[in-house]
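Deliverable D4.2, example record:
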Amino acid sequence: MSVKVSVRQFQDRLPERLDQVVNTGEEYVVQRDGKDCAVLVSAQHWRRRTVAVRLDGLGPEYRLSREKQARAETLLAKNKRRTLSPAERRELKALLEECDAVMLRRAEALDRMI
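Output generated by the structure prediction step:
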């Protein structure tokens, strides 16, 4: 969750806000003259975001396409409401297998990055 604060509000309670960022993961959007100018996040969250961007930048073999992701989500939702047809089950199985392969490639790439 992000909390918007003015520069002055942020300065007045900086030690407390830093503790909240580190201990709870809360994010602060610092505003100057009513406009966002900076964001304070924990180093752990910042590293996760940075790594995720780097992994996504490795290319399409490191992520499921938007279309396939949407289709998998649709089939998973349908599966909660009713039994899938045999064709839908095969399609979902293939999508989940592809997703597993992507996750393995991402995990191996992550090992190389850190």
